[in-house]
């Protein structure tokens, strides 16, 4: 099979999914509305950096689902792994740095908040969120999804079905929101007594990433046969493509985990040395925690 893909196609072949794009636009508008409202009373906590981070995360999601990363995901494993990197390691941390909960709630119409007020008052939402973002639960969820969907049979199954492929991507995105939440601890979350555990939390996640990446690099055989059945862009063999994908995951994934662990350790050591600043998570470099009403004059 011959392939006419050019280098330019890797930058120009966008395929925009209008439903997902519309949803991302709506979420951005709701956040922007809530951010503008809360900024009136808390400009220090919700500066331009918050807005930039959140919109950057939304933009990363758009790139993952609409750019050539998605267009070539079925013919180049390297591009598919880069797409997963955007879904797992770029979009979720940026969105969390935007401290999304309060702005999104404040940006919704008041009748919507009042409609779901009983859920907030009952504590169901709070308890569910607290459970899902426990380090142990979040770590297991993220790594189970990561390992599970890279098992050859599961990967091939998702690749053969658009719906399951979308579900796979949703798993990656939402479990990584869970994973990065206790690391960043977005405002107004309180400090955790187990914050030192974030260091092994990140190191062991990197160990999982290293294991999967090394397996792709050194398997010596094609793990995902579908890539041998399509025309190979640039004459790149499916096996070499697999090695390149593994190397990308190894280098970029480890960089994110290890850099985050380094930042956490520096803040913890600085906090211990000075005894003046309590480390609450990566988000503590921006603001300090405090409660806030979701609606002017009301709390939920």
Radius of gyration from the alpha-carbon trace, in angstroms: 21 Å
Count of helix runs: 13
**Care to count the β-strands?**
0
Gap from first CA to last CA = 60 Å
> Which term fits the overall shape?
globular
Strand content: under 5%
In short:
With 300 residues, the protein is an all-alpha fold. It contains 13 helices and no strands. The protein has one domain.
Could you walk me through the main structural features you see in this protein, from its secondary elements to its overall organization?
The protein has 300 residues and is mainly α. It has one domain. The protein has helices spanning 9-12, 18-39, 48-66, 68-71, 77-97, 101-107, 110-122, 124-132, 135-150, 152-159, 162-184, 198-218, 238-274. The relative contact order is 0.13.
How do the strands and helices of this protein lay out in sequence?
Blueprint (H helix, E strand, L loop, with lengths): L8 H4 L5 H22 L8 H19 L1 H4 L5 H21 L3 H7 L2 H13 L1 H9 L2 H16 L1 H8 L2 H23 L13 H21 L19 H37 L26
List keywords for this structure.
mainly alpha; 300 residues
